[in-house]
Design a protein that fits this description.
Elements: H1 5-16, H2 21-27, H3 32-55, H4 64-76, H5 80-92, H6 98-134, H7 146-160, H8 166-180, H9 182-193, H10 197-215
Protein name: HPt domain-containing protein
Organism: Shewanella frigidimarina (strain NCIMB 400)
InterPro entries: HPT_dom_sf
């Protein structure tokens, strides 16, 4: 398979920094857009973890939930070394002496900061790759027929279950929705792309009667 220059840059960057990008994207069923959004959210999480670490220098119990969540999210996104670090220290945390905990705290802060910087550097590479992919796509404007209703119902189900594939499903009917409900499309697009699925579900529910009226 031929690799674009952007894909090559991502591959080289991730190889240099021991990030398992390909495996991570596969966990998202090849959905690069969802992976991109997830890395953005991960940066927000790391920012909060850094703030928490700086604010709680001497309370080991405060770090257990963070490490538990971090080992899963980092592994899912391909930040394997960070995931291993979190998993190892989650197990050991309760048994640290004050000196060991002080050392852990110092290294944790540096580790979180380093991985946040890696994620920030990865974002423009992912964004450029997405732009290149999207430029090759030309989603048609679907008629409001049974096929459209089926896709809409699928989207409703996905957002109600916080299924990130909703980003792909929404792309199939976004142009038609823009014609049906232009006053809602901007907020709906933001809600889905930023994974604010409760808000997206509310908007979709509001639009639905209008769609049914058009189909009659």
């Amino acid at each position: 398979m031929n690799m674009s220059n952007t894909e090559r840059h991502i591959t080289l960057f991730c190889a240099e920094h021991q990030l398992e990008y390909r495996q991570a994207v596969n966990r998202f069923s090849g959905n690069k857009s969802t992976y991109f959004k997830s890395v953005q959210l991960f940066i927000n999480d790391l920012t909060l973890y850094i703030q928490q670490t700086m604010a709680s220098p001497s309370i080991p119990a405060d770090f257990a939930p963070m490490l538990h969540t971090l080992k899963s999210s980092a592994a899912t996104l391909g930040f394997t070394e960070l995931a291993c670090y979190a998993r190892n220290h989650e197990i050991k945390l309760a048994h640290y002496s004050p000196t060991e905990f002080s050392q852990f705290h110092e290294i944790l802060l540096a580790t979180l900061s380093t991985n946040k910087e890696l994620a920030i550097m990865l974002i423009p590479l992912l964004e450029k790759d997405l732009q290149a992919s999207n430029s090759q796509k030309d989603m048609p404007i679907l008629a409001v027929n049974n096929e459209f209703i089926m896709i809409y119902d699928t989207l409703m189900e996905e957002v109600s279950h916080y299924n990130m594939n909703a980003i792909n499903t929404f792309a199939q009917i976004a142009k038609t929705l823009n014609l049906i409900a232009p006053q809602h499309i901007e907020l709906l697009t933001q809600s889905i792309n930023q994974l604010r699925f409760q808000q997206a579900e509310n908007i979709l529910t509001e639009i639905y009667p209008r769609i049914l009226n058009i189909r009659k």
